[in-house]
Amino acid sequence: MKAELEKIVPGDDKPVLVAYQMSLPYLEFYWHHHPEYELTYKINISGKRIVGDSYQEFSPGDLVLIGPDLPHTWVTDKKIKDTTCEFVVIQFSGSLFNSLSGLNEFDNIKRLLQKSKYGLHFKNSRLFKEVILGLPEKTGVEKFTDLVWLLEQLSKQKGTKLASAEYDISTAKNSEPRINKVCTYVEQNFAKPIRISDAAKIINISPSAFCKFFKRATGKTFSDYLNEIRIGYACYQLIETDKQISTIARSAGFESLSYFNRVFAKKKNSRPREFRSEAAF
Fold first, then answer.
1. Which residues are CB-neighbours of 237 under 8 A, at least 6 positions away?
2. Which of 67-76, 84-93, 189-198, 214-223 has the lowest mean pLDDT?
3. Structure pTM?
4. What is the mean pLDDT of the segment spanning 88-100?
């Protein structure tokens, strides 16, 4: 699998620190990496997060620090209407702290950045929300000092490592860019029957090789990933429409209502009818 190299700012003279707030209708699967560190904060959105071989759900307030060249992506359901995805991204070069690396005062930040090579998730993002939201508006020294404060505070938190220690970053970023093709295909066709052999043909490998490739790339089996996409769409339909559950199951790609109910209960710890009732309050 190859994650695409993201060019953060065009040109050879790009700044060593950028911070911006974005608003998009949805986040599509875009598996990529870049040489900068990245601190990303999701303001109001939920979805799936893949960092290396870690595959997890995320919710508003999601705060993650990504180390250099670690492949990652965040995905939301593009079929959910009348919503915008608001998030803040802070990206900085490791060279930003080169001249300060010998100072003992920066030891905590150095350790934090070293740990970020596999990605770090922080639970108490509310403690830093004000500073994060304000960073895109700051300039010059003020932007730098706010980042230093933020990293120092995060170094005191117990961040959860995302990618496993066995994850090979060099192999992930240098192999062919196949995962984007597969996941884009799934997003566009999940309502139809999709077999593993269908997905394997997209990237011209055997079904057995595909299963190993996909699990290694995302931390999920292909069938589980497909069910995650389908259940996410079904949840939206249960909340936003009055359609019968059997109709929703078919529109989400489940050929059997019993199988839909079984998968839904496993993913959501609730039955579809209960989920709909609880969401109404």
1. 243, 248, 251, 252
2. 214-223
3. 0.72
4. 85
